[in-house]
Amino acid sequence: VTENRSDLEDLHLYATPREQRFRRFASLEFEGQLYMTPHDFIQAVTNDEPKRAKKWRSLSKQELNQILMETPPVWKGSSKLFRNLNDKGVISYTEYLFLLCILTKPHAGFRIAFNMFDTDGNEMVDKKEFLVLQEIFRKKNEKRERKGDEEKRAMLRLQLYGYHTPTNSVLKTEGEDLVPRSYWDTLRRSTSQALFSDLAERADDISSSLSDTTLLVHFFGKKGKAELNFEDFYRFMDNLQTEVLEIEFLSYSNGMNTISEEDFAHILLRYTNVENTSSYLENMRCRIPEEKGITFEEFRSFFQFLNNLEDFTIAMQMYNFASRSIGQDEFKRAVYVATGVKLSPHLVNTVFKIFDVDRDDQLSYKEFIGIMKDRLNRGFRGYKPIQRYTTFKSCVRKELYSR
């Protein structure tokens, strides 16, 4: 086990926020490259800081092979895959970025993602097609690299990608992006170019020099010869979304079937840039004095809606509500029309009680959208812990459960 504290602080100066977060939560190192375990990944998307002291454990080739041998095939996947694997897995930096993309995409986007990988259009994705992902995200990061010591930046690339990257561009573009794009947008734009550039050829080069990972073995088998169909791809993405939501829900439910409305508010606001969160929490406390609770199905349906936030925004503009507040019935209908998700009356009422700060039973559409966009960027805006107020009733619930 190596501490790497001085190197960590030094190279952090040259890393982007996403790279910094990956390096903080990663706990494994193999031949100079850093990896997350499945447990590390779950911690990175559900906590503000790692719970463990910062150490990178060096894996031997034998240890890595043993981990990969125990990786289940994709048809054995479940919504407990990451929890079952726990520390028995390795996730690279580019796979970490890919998994983050999955967490915020609607189910309709799963087909788009699959088609982007399926560059030859045969309704199957092979290992080579998937490895194009490595090059796309690497090229995006190259554009964002901070200027400075070339030796330090080379060390950082080695940690994140496992090999020294050339300075010349591999992916041909029509010029630099004028506006920063998300990794999902980058993936969507760049995979369409894969057949018309040397990007796919580059994937061949790196596949021979990089080690396999848990995700590659899970998708393409221990020999890397299997192919991934859409049904298995869809199931993996849906299971990952469900697993992260289950973990967040269970961290507040204390073994019960519901979480309190106040805990639901905490979860919604925890990754946002809202400065005065206490006003939202106090407002909800006063307006929902009797705790009914939010079930997991309600909780999950709300986050499925959030993953369709762009379509909802368009629907609201079409309804001509963009410049004025809306009521609960209009909100429910707009959600269903835009996303196909039916939110329960109690869930909608809870959302209104959280965000209706002026208490006029109307929701400011623009303010709500802005806050929820922050929530979707979990972990990449400044995390601000929210003080947890506990109602008398929730205290009683937790005390009864502890007995």
Walk me through the structure.
- The structure is a single chain.
- This protein is mainly alpha-helical.
- The protein contains 21 helices and seven strands.
- Strands 2-1-3 form a three-stranded mixed β-sheet. A two-stranded antiparallel ribbon has the order 4-5.
- It is globular.
- It starts with a helix and ends with a helix.
Key words describing this protein structure:
403 residues, mainly alpha, three-stranded mixed β-sheet, two-stranded antiparallel ribbon, MICU3 protein, disulfide bond, calcium ion binding
Concise account of the structure shown:
The protein is mostly helical. Helix content is 57%, strand content 4%. One of its GO terms (biological process) is mitochondrial calcium ion homeostasis.
